[in-house]
Design goal:
Chain lengths: 94, 485
Amino acid sequence: MKISKKQVEHVAHLARLTLNEEELDRMTGQLDNLLLYVDKINELDTSRVVPTFHVFSVSNAFRDDIVKDSLPRKEALKNAPKQNGEMFQVPRII
Amino acid sequence: MKPYELTISEACAQMEVGNLTATALTQSCLSRIDEIEKDMHAFITVDRDGAIQQAEEADRNRKKGAAGRLCGIPLSIKDLLATKGIRTTCGSKILENYVPPYDATVVSMVKNEGAVILGKATMDEFAMGSTSETCAFGVPRNPWKKGYVAGGSSGGSAVSVASQECFASLGSDTGGSIRQPASLCGIVGMKPTYGRVSRYGLTAFASSLDQVGPLCRNVTDCALMMSIISGFDPKDSTSVKQPVPDYSSFLVDGLAGLKIGVPREYFTEGIDVEVENIVKNSIAVLKERGADIVEVTLPHTEYCVAVYYLIAPSEASSNLARYDGVHYGYRDLGADTLLEMYKRTRSKGFGSEVKRRILIGTYALSSGYYDAYYKKASQVRTLIVGDFKKAFQSCDVIVSPVTPTPAWRIGENNDDPLSVYLSDILTLSANLAGVPGMSVPGGVTNIGLPVGIQLQGPHFHEGDLLRVGYNLERGLKLGSRALDI
């Protein structure tokens, strides 16, 4: 076993997901299967290989600091599941 | 010949001489949709009124002598590219009612050329899948054979073009999502070089791999679409400042002086015999047309699936954290605390495949596993990039199959995610290396399923791919065929 049900449950919490018992069983099996497969990359010695996170090495792409029009508030709030015309509303945090 | 059967250049020529109007052309596509869409499921949303309005405007512009290069041409747009005022779901329940307040840069670009946006194409949820079956709003069907998958994730895009509901589509390709459905549906699809086309307004899946590209009926239309959508965009800081050539200038007869590489690793076990024969026949055609055929090697091909299915889910797990029920999209209203709201919203809003990939990615990035999985995969990615650099020292274009097999039946392989992931083996490396890749029809199997030929080239050499594709098209003369509806 590469991954246990308990670990999958923990990862689900980190990802802000809840899995029911059936999902947890199925996902654990499938993730375990995949992790066994991806172990293949350990056949290769990469101790001297620089990782590629991006194919073109981009450094910071700066632009001039000029104020431009932004999305009007009404537009920005339009798709919100809950809002009061001024702000996004969420369940009480504190 | 019905107007919807024309190619883009033919339709433009007809409109220019006054034999056809954009309104009539759009009506023709809408009637086609009425006739066959129930069997195709290519669209999540069809914007009839908007399309007619845009067509009327196109007709007015043409009268004024202000016709763009796509004036009056009906297109579909994969449902993960933002379209101002048209619902954009990404194939997910979590965005079922999301209406973007802006256009993706590529959408603005085709609109500026006068294109008519017919609607939004079905796709795998958040582009995660190889058959479009993970779409929350219906599964697109392969127009060539009843009961078979269209491929994915840009399945609806491919079907809308192959079934002649529209003239071309804009899709996205993170691991083969343009090339594979183009291959399985018998049309032309191009994944440009990473950074060639703006990603602004493209819903992010794996940001270091995602690229927007066209799905078209032929190579000439593909060259036109590439000329229109390519270029630097200040809103996408990963887009590259490289001049955009007129891609149609590459569409010349003959391949003299061009070296075409055949990678030995792409013709190993698991390749369907019919697919192999169709690809070999296509290679013979390219040779007849003057290309030099050489063998090349991409030795790390066998690691692509493992590398991809660590890197792509890692990036996805981070990108999809934004779907939290706060700013837009679905929210579960039954929760009392913020944490519960996040969890319920995401658990109800996402489908299984998306959850699976978020879990893989979260695990691969989590403390204690980062080095073993994400970093290690990124190091092997460097070796894959190196394979291509080396191969392109001895050839200009690499030719291969797009997929090991033709399309399979809807519902097959659904219980075994790994076996579906493995079917992506021949397309993933182009995304990992950032090189351009293209699928061009190569032939049809005995039971009537199309098989595409994959062309890959060095960074920013899309023109060479188009040249080879054009010659393949001219040499094979596949012609059109009836749909199996």
